[in-house]
Amino acid sequence: MILLINIMFRGLNKISLDTKGRISIPTKYRSELSKYGSNELICTIDIDQCLLLYPKKIWLKIEKTIMELPSLDKSSRMLQRLMVGHASELVLDSHNRILVPVELREFSGIKKSAMFIGQGQRFEIWNYQSWNQSRDLWLKKSDLALTEQLRDISI
Fold it and tell me: What pTM, to 2 d.p., does this model score?
């Protein structure tokens, strides 16, 4: 019998970047990350002006799916250019830090403070002020339109 390990990242942490642009992976995620058997991560951009951080094993599956999209479709090419084109390979150093490339920091507006958010099998990294503004805006929305799939979920 094969047991599948369902690794899930959840929760949020306010973090700081050092002067070189490095962030420390919060302690509570380190043991889960180590279960992927590698210290390699992939960081790319998201349409919400935040960064997405994946264990490399997870990213490779996503990247394959994205690159198999029809290349003559404009939306597919846009997604490929944005997600795969901005993808950067990062390596955890001996202090559990990653160096976030300057281009990705500029895109997301992350300078000193950031919010590090577990989202299942990936993380989101937000500019701290942008996260708070977006979260507050989402909480104020009273016109949340649920898709057909979401209508049957009870929380």
Answer: 0.88
